[in-house]
Design a protein that fits this description.
Blueprint lengths: L1 H46 L9 H13 L17 H11 L11 H14 L9 H10 L6 H17 L2 H11 L1 E3 L2 E2 L1 H9 L8 H10 L3 H6 L4 H13 L7
Antiparallel strand pairs: 1-2
Protein name: Monofunctional biosynthetic peptidoglycan transglycosylase
């Protein structure tokens, strides 16, 4: 009987050990996944300091949506270097999207606080207070969903971008991958899509108009003559001279 008892005790001990092992992996597994994911993001950010991204998460999502209606759909996007993008567009985007772009470290905490207050009043996420760096982080890696988990990841990637890239490189990538319309990505494609000119030739009014379209580009691609678009374009055009370029 003592032998049977010993066997039972040994089996029970092994079961407890196995249970603790599974419990450890249940806890550590997700943590390990998060760490590896951050390392992947950081490695890609470092790679893009020297090489241009061929596509982004937002591009792939939009292309997939377009191909549900047309299997042969393609995106409009042509990469151009920073020097071949009009300074008018650079100033307009900064004036419209992130006035403190040249000063902050990737996150504008005052803007985030104001956005948080607005979201609480509406009882939903209606605005994120995102900087250009945060928007680039989202475009490169994340989805367009609005929730605080995604926002947290956006902040982490924004700090990665600022840690290894200068402001000029961040703005260069942003202006080449940001969405300007249905299937239209980047400054060069946008300038040709809307004005039939290269991005280098955009004047102040054209640049301001493109910058104003950024928060809702697909809508404004279909509705190009709204009174709000005209009003907001005039406001941004007046602010452009005060926008500081990196």
């Amino acid at each position: 009987m003592s032998g049977i008892g010993t066997l039972k005790a040994g089996a029970s001990a092994r079961a407890r050990t196995g249970g603790r092992r599974w419990l450890k992996w249940i806890i550590l597994g997700p943590l390990l996944f998060v760490v590896l994911l951050q390392l992947y993001f950081f490695a890609m950010v470092c790679w893009w300091t020297q090489f241009n991204p061929s596509s982004t998460s937002m591009m792939r999502q939009q292309l997939s949506a377009l191909r549900e209606q047309n299997p042969n759909a393609k995106l409009e996007q042509v990469w151009v270097p920073y020097a071949r993008i009009s300074n008018n567009l650079k100033r307009a985007v900064i004036a419209s999207e992130d006035a403190n772009f040249s000063e902050h470290d990737g996150v504008d905490w005052d803007a985030l606080e104001k956005a948080y207050e607005r979201n609480n009043k509406k009882h939903r996420v209606v605005g994120g207070g995102s900087t250009i760096t945060q928007q680039l982080a989202k475009n490169l890696f994340l989805s367009g969903s609005r929730n605080y988990l995604r926002k947290g990841q956006e902040l982490v990637i924004a700090y990665m971008l600022e840690a290894v890239m200068d402001k000029e490189r961040i703005l260069e990538i942003y202006l080449n991958v940001v969405e300007f319309g249905r299937g239209v990505f980047g400054a060069e494609a946008a300038a040709r899509h809307y004005f039939r000119i290269p991005a280098a030739n955009l004047n102040a009014a054209q640049a301001a108009r493109l910058a104003v379209m950024l928060p809702n580009p697909r809508y404004y691609d279909r509705h190009r003559d709204t009174s709000y678009l005209a009003r907001r374009t005039a406001i941004i055009q007046r602010r452009m001279n005060a926008a500081e370029l990196p």
